[in-house]
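R.M. (postdoc): so does anyone remember the format we settled on? I'll just put the C-alpha cells first.
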C-alpha cells in the first residue's frame, strides 16, 4: 500500500499537481515507516530508509513551493467532489482558510433563494455556512451576500428568511449586508485574508436528504454530494465585490 501511494505521489508530482502529491507523499511515507518497523532484514530496512529519506526531501521541497506560491499570490488548489461523495461539509472545505484574522466575508451566489425546491435547500445551506463562521476560529464581523431575487411568490419568503438570518447573526455581533442582482451568474466566496473559493454549484452542492430524520440531514459531512469542482485561490490583489 505504501509503494502504491508513493507511486501515485510521483505521478501527481510529475503532472504538477503539487497539493495532491504532497498528501500522497505524506501518506506513503507513513505507510513505509510502518513497513520498516515490521521488517527484520537489515538490508531491506536500509533500502526502505533511503527511499523514505528521498521522499521526505521531495515532500519538503513541494511544501516550500506551495508556501512560496501562497506568498506570491499564485496558489491554486482544485478539489473534485465526486457524485454521491461524503465527507465534504463546509468545515472540510473552508476551515483551513478561516484564520483568526478573517473578519469580513463576501458570498456571491445567485441561488440563495429556495427552501422547498426539489433538490435545493440553499437558504438552509447559507444559514449553515453562517453558523460555521460564527463558531470560528475566525472573528467574522461582516458578511456580504450578493444573490438574486426568487421569482413569483417565493420572493416574500426569501426576504423573510434572509431577514431572520440577519437578525439572528446580529445577536452574535455579526452584520449581514444583502444585495440583489438580476445578472450575476458566477458563484464565489472571498475572505479578507486573501482566500477565494469558487464552487461550481455554490453552497448548494449537497443532495436532498432522504428524510428529516435520515443520517446526513443535520451533519453535512454525512450528506451525499452532487459532482462539482472546487477551486481555491490566494491572491494579494483580491478585489472586494
Amino acid at each position: 500500500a505504501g509503494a502504491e501511494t508513493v507511486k501515485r505521489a510521483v505521478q501527481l508530482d510529475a503532472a504538477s499537481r503539487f497539493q495532491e502529491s504532497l498528501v500522497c507523499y505524506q501518506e506513503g511515507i507513513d505507510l513505509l515507516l510502518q513497513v520498516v518497523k515490521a521488517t527484520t532484514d537489515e538490508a531491506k530496512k536500509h533500502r526502505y530508509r533511503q527511499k523514505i529519506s528521498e521522499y521526505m526531501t521531495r515532500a519538503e521541497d513541494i511544501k516550500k513551493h506551495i508556501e512560496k506560491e501562497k506568498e506570491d499570490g499564485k496558489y491554486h488548489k482544485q478539489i473534485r467532489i465526486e457524485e454521491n461523495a461524503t465527507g465534504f461539509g463546509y468545515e472540510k472545505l473552508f476551515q483551513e482558510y478561516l484564520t483568526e484574522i478573517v473578519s469580513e466575508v463576501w458570498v456571491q451566489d445567485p441561488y440563495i433563494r429556495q427552501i422547498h425546491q426539489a433538490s435545493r435547500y440553499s437558504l438552509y445551506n447559507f444559514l449553515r455556512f453562517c453558523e460555521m463562521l460564527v463558531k470560528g476560529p475566525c472573528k467574522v464581523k461582516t458578511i456580504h451576500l450578493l444573490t438574486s431575487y426568487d421569482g413569483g411568490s417565493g420572493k416574500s419568503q426569501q426576504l423573510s428568511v434572509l431577514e431572520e438570518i440577519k437578525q439572528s447573526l446580529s445577536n452574535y455581533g455579526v452584520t449581514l449586508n444583502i444585495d440583489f442582482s438580476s445578472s450575476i451568474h458566477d458563484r464565489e466566496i472571498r475572505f479578507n485574508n486573501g482566500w477565494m473559493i469558487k464552487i461550481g454549484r455554490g453552497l448548494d452542492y449537497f443532495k436532498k436528504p432522504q428524510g428529516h430524520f435520515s443520517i446526513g440531514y443535520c451533519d453535512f459531512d454525512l450528506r451525499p454530494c452532487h459532482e462539482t469542482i472546487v477551486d481555491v485561490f490566494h491572491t494579494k490583489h483580491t478585489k472586494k465585490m
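R.M.: ...and that's the designed sequence above, right after the C-alpha cells. Also worth knowing: Helices lie at 2-14, 18-38, 42-72, 90-94, 122-135, 154-170. The two ends are 46 Å apart (CA to CA).
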